[in-house]
Amino acid sequence: MLNFDTLYNPYASRRVTTYANNGMVATSQPLAAEAGLSVLRKGGNAVDAAIAAAVCLTVVEPTSNGIGGDAFALIWSKGELYGLNASGPAPQLLNLQILKKAGREKMPIYGWLPVTVPGAPSAWAELSSRFGRLPLTEVMAPAIKYAEGGFPVSPTVGRSWEISFDRYAHDLKDEQYKSWFNTFAPDGRAPKIGELWRSPDHARTLQSIAETKASSFYSGVIADKIDYFSKHHGGFLRKEDLAAYKPEWVNPVSINYRGYQVWEIPPNGHGLVALLALNILKGFDFDIKESTESYHYQIEAMKLAFADGLKYIADPSQMSVSINDLLSDEYAAERRKLIGGRALQPEPGRPPKGGTVYLATADSEGNMVSYIQSNYMGFGSGLVVPGTGISLHNRGNNFSLDPNHANCLQPGKKPYHTIIPGFLTKDQKPVGPFGVMGGFMQPQGHVQVIMNTLDFHLNPQAALDAPRWQWINGKTIGVEHSFPEHIAQVLARKGHDINWSMDTASFGRGQIIWRTEDDVLAGGTESRADGYIGMW
């Protein structure tokens, strides 16, 4: 099904592509991967494993996600692909006038204004109810154990924790932020790499969510605590917002690329940006990966795709154009004509009318899961509900305050969302889940991973290890320190403003699991993180 060299990795890291046939769990943190694998060994399926790993990541990688964040998932089960959107809306009490009266010209990063209804706990319960095999209490047990008993902080997590602590210590002085420091820096500092860290509050909250199938979070004792904390500090989130929330089952969207279907969750997520770029790029032939033309076309297509995405993607009820029109071959052809030999300044077109964690799982029965969850910008809003370990996310930061913009803040409206799971199929059969976490890098990572796989025939680990680039704004492009220097020089002569970076974290962290024609699972995990693959 996939044509890749199983032996050679031209971008060799300390990792190699991993193979298994009974099950596989690929995550950014080893303990979370092992949590998912332990559930598989107990008789659970890929969905159970995904939940176990996701919940565990809220404990062992709190720098990127938490109980108070959002989630999305693509699930392959019994010959069909399902999509789950577990992102939450703005509170009913929050509106544009409040921001304007406060003198805000854009949504803030910290505090109550960017807090939207958390969706992650609903995702765990919904996935378990529809597809899971084991009780949620058993699936969440590994995470609860680590929260209660502690775990040694891994290297990437430790570095991110220290950076977040330094920033929060400088920026967050108000009383409402005190609980964050009590929870995540109880000794007045971030925990060190290798140091044992535990969060009994987190453990109790997870136990309650497991026992009540998340009802305590949305309509019970936890909801009451969130409501009280919000009211006490002048926030807008209320228990009525939590009680009214339900995750949504959605129809995944796709395009055909090189004979494969590339699948994404539809808006309000920006997986559409990856599909827009690939739809443009499929009109070019790519014979050599490390060439100036290859990178130039990719960058230009991504700039055009983002220009459209940032203009049109919003809560689906607020979008002014249809997804089908944006993904039409006719529109892709028109956008493709704009790409020439020089770097362009991206502008949105007019289509015809008509801090995140990612994980992948697979089992021996054919089930596969592409799952992503996030608090956004590391720990999120800086607000932790006292006595719960719940760090509330700040996803509302992506709302626009322009009343004429499709993504303008409204009560009960979902914001433009950056976290996206991906999935690949061919001839209506699953190839597998893939994803690259990291804010606005995510669709760019998706495009690069897919092209590395389908155009350049790299195996999963090589597809992840390859040097990455990212469009930042205008004609500015960030490139990793390992990016070919001679190509960067030629790109600069084409008008691209090249920024070199030693910060590999800003270029995303991904996971891949492909199922081969021989029904063998081939997995790759991120060399830019503490990535790990549990296999059986």
Structural class per helix/strand content?
alpha+beta
Spatially, the strands of the biggest sheet line up as 1-20-19-15-14-9-8
**Mean pLDDT value:** 94
Query: Which stretches of 5+ consecutive residues score pLDDT under 50?
Result: none
- Percent range of helical residues: 25-40%
How would you name the oligomeric state of the polypeptide chains in this document? Answer: single chain
Percent of sequence in beta strands: 15-25%
What radius of gyration results from the CA coordinates?
22 Å
Give the CA-CA distance, first to last residue. 22 Å
* Count of individual helical segments: 19
Shape: globular
Largest sheet entry: 7 strands, antiparallel
Number of strands: 21
GO molecular function, one term: transferase activity
InterPro entries: GGT-like_enzyme (IPR052896), GGT_ssub_C (IPR043137), Ntn_hydrolases_N (IPR029055)
Protein name: Gamma-glutamyltransferase
Keywords: Transferase
